[in-house]
Amino acid sequence: MxxxxxxxxxLGAAAGGFMNGLAGFGTAxxxxxxxxxxxxxxxxxxxxxxxSVVAGLxxxxxxxxxxxxxxxxxxxxxxLR
Length: 81
What we know:
Layout: H1 3-23, H2 27-35, H3 41-62, H4 64-69, H5 72-79
Pfam families: TauE
Family: Belongs to the 4-toluene sulfonate uptake permease (TSUP) (TC 2.A.102) family.
Transmembrane segments: 41-63
């Protein structure tokens, strides 16, 4: 793997993370714009899925006290689907 590969990989991750922090979604949209230039689509999508799940779990971990303090919160969040 070359330096170019790691630079594009890092730029894609940074762009996806920035968009996720800014809007709460759009990680895949921005990261795949970079990553599809350097890796096959199946590999890029798998990495974006893992990256999105990790970011989502981080958000749940940050608000876990709010979820457990409001027992009705679980029922409301289940009904919003």
